[in-house]
Specification:
There is one protein chain. The protein is globular, with a radius of gyration of 24 Å. It contains 14 helices and 24 strands. Strands 1, 2, 3, 4, 5, 6 and 19 form a seven-stranded mixed sheet that branches. The protein has a five-stranded parallel sheet with strand order 8-15-9-10-11. 32% of the residues lie in helices and 25% in strands. The chain starts with 6 loop residues before the first strand and ends with a helix. The longest helix is centred in the N-terminal third of the chain and has 25 residues. It has 458 residues and is of the alpha/beta class. Strand 13 and strand 14 form a beta hairpin. The structure holds 1,4-dihydronicotinamide adenine dinucleotide. 1,4-dihydronicotinamide adenine dinucleotide binds next to helix 6 and strand 20.
Length: 458
């Protein structure tokens, strides 16, 4: 064989990227008896496991423990929070990640998926079997799945490094900064603001839009803003970033209009972009739109035989969506004719303190679709026994079509993320409040708040 000529291996399925979308697809396809190559340049598990959901939620749990200690006297418990040992926090977080990584690697190995380490590049042209080239290997697949995920974006002129960091670098902070500016009040911004404030940093969030977590129902944004105010987190909405200058020991952030904010650390959380650049997608004939892969409902790209899953497909950038995409494509390739993933039915949780959980339409979106035929009800957690025991405020808000199904559920409060499962079923099954009321919710749970809201509406 001539030198530099890649060695060709054939598979039923070649997957580029081993994050939530890629590994889910690989494992399910292997269960269907397909031969699978899974290409990964870093570690199986991707953003979610290594620099996203899992490590962030570990930090958020440590933050909750800190808050519990800080507020122990409220419950008559004598405890003193003497400090945050960041290296120990990082160690706890890393152990959680490495346990899950070990488990996942074992699953991939056990499923006889061929894991190919290295950076892959798509090769293809209509009428030819698509392939992924990794170093000197050429992996052809009857089907190829693009699952390359997303990266933390920055702004023009704002270089990441030193005190200026994205959510990735924050996960390795070995000390608690005295003052933090968080740029972007979306999901990542509010979660990291919440962690750092619980750890004792003085936090300011700078958000260009008029409210935090602008994708959520307005009632949720308002409740979070109130709760953050109580927690002494400064929220600057309608505030646009203009420049950041590194100073001797930190960074000075200038807002449009000239106001400056001094901080030890600037966290940049202005969204995540699709990883599609330089991977041969467009050259192979995969249509992109502003960097995202154009895919139909069945996740087929413009190049026959090539699918796309997860964050590179426009829509909510959530691990469980990527995971569901991966399962869908594997089932589809195996001829099981699965139902496509519906973005509107995907539950969302923001793990700040307090948490925000939602599924379906916001009240505003429901009114756009259904006009005046929309009914809402907001049950205050003040009436919920378990929430009072925990000392949390918040609500369950139900959005329904008048006389018809529940089309949206929005919840705020400590631990309310755990309630999103029932909310997802109610919206997904197009339940009416009257369908729910004969069914019981255990007492005393926060789950009862959903039951109370249904009673009120029925
Ligand atoms: P995002 O799009 O949710 O929020 C970014 C925010 O930055 C927006 O509110 C935007 O208005 C603001 N912004 C942009 N440019 C700005 C500027 N120049 N000045 C001031 N503000 C500016 O993106 P985020 O929070 O980075 O998250 C990325 C993705 O990751 C989201 O899709 C999110 O859903 C997902 N994610 C989900 C999590 C969860 O489900 N718990 C956790 C972490 C991320």
């Amino acid at each position: 064989m001539p030198q530099n000529q890649p060695q060709t291996q054939q598979f039923d399925l070649v997957i580029l990227g081993a994050g939530s979308g890629g590994y889910a697809c690989a494992l399910r396809a292997a269960q269907h008896g397909l031969s699978v190559a899974l290409v990964e340049k870093a570690k199986v598990g991707g953003t979610c496991l290594h620099v996203g959901c899992i490590p962030t939620k570990a930090l958020l749990h440590a933050a909750e423990v800190a808050d519990t200690a800080r507020m122990a006297s409220r419950f008559g418990v004598e405890a003193t929070l003497t400090g945050i040992d960041m290296p120990a926090v990082l160690d706890y977080k890393d152990k959680v990640v490495s346990r899950l990584y070990k488990g996942l690697s074992g699953l991939v190995f056990g499923a006889k998926v061929t894991l190919v380490e290295g950076e892959g590049r798509l090769e293809g042209q209509p009428g030819h079997t698509p392939a992924v080239v990794v170093g000197d290997q050429r992996l052809t697949g009857r089907s190829v799945v693009l699952a390359t995920g997303s990266y933390a974006k920055s702004l023009p002129g704002l270089d990441i490094g030193g005190p200026v960091m994205t959510s990735t670098e924050v996960l390795a902070l070995d000390h608690v900064p005295k003052r933090t500016v968080v740029l972007g009040g979306g999901v990542i911004g509010v979660e990291l603001a919440s962690v750092l404030a619980s750890f004792g940093s003085t936090v300011t969030i700078v958000e260009a839009l008029p409210r935090l977590v602008a994708g959520e129902d307005e009632a949720s944004s308002a409740a979070l803003a109130r709760a953050f105010k109580k927690r002494k987190i400064t929220v600057r909405t309608n505030a646009r970033f203009s420049a950041a200058e590194r100073t001797g020991d930190g960074v000075t952030v200038t807002l449009e209009g000239g106001e400056t904010l001094d901080a030890d650390v600037l966290v940049v959380a202005v969204g995540r972009g699709p990883v599609t650049d330089g991977l041969g997608f467009e050259e192979a004939g995969v249509e992109l739109d502003r960097g995202f892969v154009v895919a139909d409902r069945r996740l087929r790209t413009s190049l026959p035989g090539v699918y796309a899953v997860g964050d590179i497909v426009p829509g909510p950038q959530l691990a469980h969506r990527g995971f569901a995409h991966g399962l869908f494509v594997a089932d589809d390739i195996a001829g099981r004719n699965p139902l496509p993933v519906q973005d509107l039915l995907i539950p969302k949780v923001t793990y700040s303190s307090p948490e925000i959980a939602s599924v379906g339409l916001t009240e505003a979106a429901a009114r756009e679709q259904h006009g005046d035929a929309v009914q809402t009800y907001q049950y205050d957690l003040g009436g919920n026994g378990k929430s009072q025991i925990l000392g949390t405020q918040g609500f369950v808000k139900v959005v329904r079509v008048e006389g018809g199904p529940i089309v949206g559920m929005h919840m705020v409060g400590e631990r309310m993320g755990e309630q999103v499962g029932e909310a997802m079923l109610l919206v997904g099954w197009e339940a009416t409040p009257a369908d729910v009321t004969p069914l019981l919710h255990a007492h005393p749970t926060q789950n009862e708040a959903i039951g109370e809201a249904m009673l009120a509406l029925a």
